[in-house]
Design brief:
The chain is mostly helical. The chain has seven helices and three strands; from the N terminus they run αααβααββαα. It has a single domain, classed as Winged helix-like DNA-binding domain superfamily/Winged helix DNA-binding domain (Arc Repressor Mutant, subunit A, Orthogonal Bundle), CATH 1.10.10.10. The protein has a three-stranded antiparallel β-sheet. Strand 2 and strand 3 form a beta hairpin. It is globular. The chain starts with a helix and ends in a 5-residue tail after the last helix.
Length: about 150
């Protein structure tokens, strides 16, 4: 019985995820922000949520290896959106955090993302939009150990 349920969930995910990515949450559109790549925006959003992180922590969260992360962070530092701060406890550790300019970019992105998703969900009536919100919250609750 359990295997059948897991197989059904897998089948549903294999249909749902591509639809979400291609039709609703198109990464290149959703994470569009000036001349930044989606990975840059993910880093900004992650740091807005977590205040400061090490490179390894950022790498784990956005699933990018450190060698690929360094040029992304370097560009954001050069643009004035991030800053490096050595740890007071361990000089080998460097914390990355948002600057005031980075916080402005995050707010700018949030305004854009809400407008983008509002347009994407225009076809849903209020009842279906509320149902979608409730189901997404339920899924997040069920999968909280994995998120």
């Amino acid at each position: 019985m359990r295997e059948q349920i897991v197989a059904q969930i897998l089948g549903d995910f294999l249909i749902l995820v591509p639809v979400l990515n291609k039709k609703i949450l198109r990464e290149n559109d959703l994470y569009k922000l000036d001349d930044l790549y989606p990975s840059h925006v993910q880093i900004l959003l992650l740091l807005a949520k977590n205040k400061q992180l090490t490179m390894s922590e950022i790498s784990k969260e956005i699933h990018v290896i450190n060698s690929n992360l360094t040029p992304l962070v370097d560009k954001l530092i050069k643009l004035g959106y991030l800053k490096r701060q050595p740890s007071k406890k361990d000089r080998r550790v460097v914390h990355i955090s948002l600057t005031a300019g980075g916080k402005k970019q995050v707010e700018k992105h949030k305004v854009y993302a809400v407008a983008y998703l509002t347009e994407q969900f225009e076809k849903l009536d209020d009842e279906k939009l509320k149902a979608l919100e409730e189901h997404i919250n339920a899924i997040n609750g069920i999968l909280s150990d994995y998120i």
